[in-house]
Amino acid sequence: MSWAFLRDLLSGVNSYSTGIGRIWVAVVFMFRLLVYVAAAENIWKHEHDEFECNIKQPGCENVCFDHFFPVSHIRLWALQLITVSTPSLLVVFHVAYRENREKHHNQKLYKNPGKIDGGLLCTYLISLILKTGLEIVFLVLFYKLYNGFKIPRLVKCDIKPCPNTVDCYISKPTEKMIFLYFLVATSCLCIVLNLSELSYLIFKYSIKGYLKRHVKKQQ
User: Fold this and answer.
1) If DSSP codes are grouped into helix, strand and coil, which group holds residue 167?
2) Which of 203, 211, 197, 208 has the alpha carbon at shortest distance from 91?
3) What are the beta bridge partners of residue 150?
4) How confident is the model over 39-47, as a mean pLDDT?
5) Which residue among 49, 58, 126, 149 has its CA within the 20 to 30 Å range from the CA of 105?
6) What sections of the protein cross the membrane (predicted)?
């Protein structure tokens, strides 16, 4: 899979972000996207082939694997990366709208089309709320699908067509567990960064609005 589109998206968003937003972009790009491409994708590459049960009953391994891994960790992680980055498109589209509007009217309508203020501020805040919500949704989804943030070495399966309870072994469980913890930690870090940026912007523009009203009253 080519991740160039996501890299370009993050680079574009970085131009309009606050300092905290730039840290978020760096975390997503360096500690999530690059780790996924360089290492994690290869670890889960042959997870189905390396899933072994102590019985050769036709179909038993397949149904057991599907039961314990209804969605591949790595594919769900890829979906998470794409989904939590998508709300940033709202900001890019809004800036593009401002620029096209200036071209259409052939005059300067904004001091800086990429400056976070007015309508763009609302769009930016909505994107932060969406990103935070999606991160939480995926963490809950991971927890529900796999019964916690863990990868057992051994699972016991008694689903038909398995004739009885069989032992099934997961390949490289320790290595996968490390990357799973890393995934959860980076997701939590991104949530903290999004909430910090949201609080910062609300506080900053609330104070700014209060000071403007105060100055008008004094005048």
Assistant:
1) strand
2) 197
3) none
4) 75
5) 126
6) 21-39, 77-97, 118-143, 178-203
Nearest of 74, 28, 26, 18 to residue 186 by alpha carbon? 28
Q: How far apart are CA 105 and CA 150, in angstroms?
A: 57
User: What is the C-alpha separation between 73 and 180, in angstroms, rounded?
Assistant: 8
CB distance 155 to 68 below 8 Å: yes
SS3 70: coil
Asked if residues 25 and 10 have their Cβ atoms less than 8 Å apart, the reply is: yes
Q: What is the pLDDT of residues 117-164, one digit of tens each?
A: 778 888 889 999 999 999 999 999 988 888 888 888 888 888 888 888
Residues in CB range of 113: below 8 A, 6 or more apart: 95, 98, 99, 102
Q: Cβ distance 165 to 64 under 8 Å?
A: no
* Domain regions of the chain by residue span: 15-218
Question: What dihedral angle (degrees, nearest 10) is formed by the CA atoms of 56, 59, 60, 63?
Answer: 150
User: How far are the Cα atoms of 116, 183, 199, 200, 215 from residue 212, in angstroms, in the given order?
Assistant: 17, 43, 20, 18, 5
CATH number of 15-218: 1.20.1440.80
DSSP run (H or E) holding 168: strand 166-169
Q: CA 168, CA 63: separation in Å to the nearest integer?
A: 11
Q: Percent of the chain scored above 70 by pLDDT?
A: 89
Report how far apart, in Å, the C-alpha atoms of 35 and of each of 74, 126, 192, 209 are: 11, 28, 20, 42
